[in-house]
Amino acid sequence: MLIRTTQSGDLGGGPVLVFGGPYSNLQATRAIRAMARARDIPAERCLCTGDVVGYCADPEATVAEIRDWGCRVIAGNVERQLAEGALDCGCGFEAGTACDLLSAGWYAHANAHVGAEARAWMAGLPDALDLTSPLGLLRLVHGGTREVNRFLWPDTEPAVLRQEVAHLPGARPAFVFAGHSGLPFRTAVDGAFWVNAGVIGLPPNDGQPQTRYAILHPDGQAEICRLDYDHEGAARAMEDAGLRQGYHHALRSGLWPSQDILPAALRRSPGLDPGPADQRTVP
Questions:
Q1: Of 47, 140, 144, 190, whose CB neighbour count within 10 A is largest?
Q2: Which helix or strand (DSSP H or E) is residue 48 part of?
Q3: DSSP 177-217
Q4: How far is it, in rounded angstroms, from Cα 104 to Cα 141?
Q5: Where are the alpha helices (DSSP H) in the chain?
Q6: Structural Rg of the chain based on CA atoms
């Protein structure tokens, strides 16, 4: 999925909230919105890297919550696919992987419960955002800088990230914020700072139910933060909706049912201490 549209704007001063993958998790979406309110971060400085809809139970209500909030949103692969009436999520999984097989269930649920108005809103979302700030240019993408559904992991080779940054036209951004892979990381790349903010709809495969988001502070620190929310309520909502393919367990256990899509070093087994996901960085 090549990036087709980019919009621009200004962030002004103050902290910036960046989060990805609400994934139809209404409880997590309400929690991140409440957190932004508590920290006095206005909607125009709250940025979503896409995939508002995904694995969890409440796609239409989650879209409505995001739209009511008024935060800035770009299209993830799921928004692109739903807007176009596609029959699959377009995530970029290899055929036959657990993610590929399990996506048939959650995407069918989303496709059945997202209405025409929400799809029209999705169709109008840009694939990327270029935002000016006192810290310099900030580029917001879903996966990579060229492809919406590009997977970039905490152990992706630095040369690959350099190519992603080098592809960008015009001025070099001070920060590139991304999502899609679901695992947060931060690393310096040729004068830029690449930050995967993680996702709020699923935990980062670390054995804990808390999910992740990022705060860009006025001093330039990009902090990966943990989000506490009603994960038990979200898991029960999935069970009530018949979404029992394994992601409902992930909301409680913090471990994905789709380990095979991960690079080998990032796969986790029950009972294995995965280490602090917040600190995973590319060398």
A1: 140
A2: strand 46-48
A3: EE-SSS--EEEEETTEEEEE---SSS--SSSSS-EEEEEE-
A4: 25
A5: 26-38, 59-69, 77-83, 98-113, 116-123, 158-166, 231-240, 247-253
A6: 17
Pick the CATH number of 8-132+200-263 from 3.40.50.720, 3.60.70.12, 3.60.21.10, 3.40.630.40: 3.60.21.10
* Dihedral over Cα of 176, 179, 180, 184: its sign: positive
Q: How many CB atoms lie within 10 A of CB 184?
A: 28
pLDDT in tens, 164-205: 999 887 788 999 999 999 999 999 998 899 999 999 999 999
Side by side, the strands of the sheet bearing 185-189 are 6-10, 128-133, 136-140, 175-178, 192-196, 185-189
CA distances from 103 to 3, 78, 108 (A): 22, 11, 8
Partners of 138 in beta bridges: 131, 175
